[in-house]
Each structure stands twice: as structure tokens, then as C-alpha cells.
Write a structure and sequence with these properties.
Structural class: mainly alpha
Shape: elongated
Radius of gyration: 16 Å
CATH class: Mainly Alpha
CATH architecture: Alpha Horseshoe
Order of helices and strands: HHHHHHH
Distance between the termini: 34 Å
Length: 121
């Protein structure tokens, strides 16, 4: 991540504004490093700069949060994703089920039943 941040700094010094691809690379990099704090921080920087997140960024964050059992952040991100117009789907909802299941939380069963009832695939 150090080299990625150096590259970003160099781009900004040269007058380039980060776009969705740059932010996606940074966020997914932090997710792969299990650094949710920095991933979410860069997500917020991206949104504040006026760049709208795409479904890939949301999926990356929700998946990693769920794998690390940071379910409160995963829920907030998923809710924000749906509020901004993305439709529920199994790719985004299934990581929550796995996270809740690992925690022994009954939300896993409830979310699974909801997905079946609403034909979310």
C-alpha cells in the first residue's frame, strides 16, 4: 500500500484528481490487507470528493467487513448501497449471512429467509 499511496501523492502533485478507478484500487488494496479502518476512511474521502462508489467498491467493503466479523460496518455500508439505488443481490448479501453465521447470530437465518422470500439472487 505504501507504493500505491506514493503514486497517488505523485498524481495529486501533478494536478490529477483521483477517479473511481484510483479510489477503487486504494480501497480494495486496504481490504486485501484486512485494514478496514483505512478502507472505510478512503471510501469516505471518495464520497466527500464527489466520486460516487460503484457496486464493486461496496461489495469489496461488505465482503471484507463480513469476513473480519465487523458486522456493524458491513450493515451500514449495505444499507447505504441500497439507499443510493443499487438492488439487493446474493453477491452483496451472502457475505453478511456467512459473518452472522460465524458469530452464531440469528440474523444469518433471518437474512437467508428474506432473500428466499424476495427471490434475491
Amino acid at each position: 500500500m505504501k507504493k500505491a499511496m506514493e503514486c497517488l501523492e505523485s498524481m495529486e502533485t501533478d494536478g490529477f484528481e483521483p477517479d473511481i478507478i484510483v479510489y477503487c484500487s486504494i480501497i480494495s488494496g486496504y481490504c486485501r490487507c484486512n485494514n478496514i479502518k483505512n478502507a472505510v476512511q478512503w471510501f469516505n474521502i471518495m464520497v466527500e470528493s464527489g466520486v460516487a462508489p460503484d457496486v464493486y467498491i461496496y461489495t469489496c467493503l461488505v465482503d471484507r467487513c463480513s469476513k473480519l466479523l465487523v458486522m456493524d460496518i458491513a450493515e451500514l455500508l449495505l444499507a447505504k448501497m441500497y439507499r443510493t439505488g443499487f438492488s439487493p443481490n446474493a453477491i452483496n448479501d451472502t457475505p453478511l449471512i456467512h459473518g452472522y453465521r460465524k458469530l452464531g447470530n440469528e440474523k444469518a437465518y433471518k437474512l437467508h429467509r428474506y432473500m428466499i422470500k424476495e427471490s434475491i439472487s
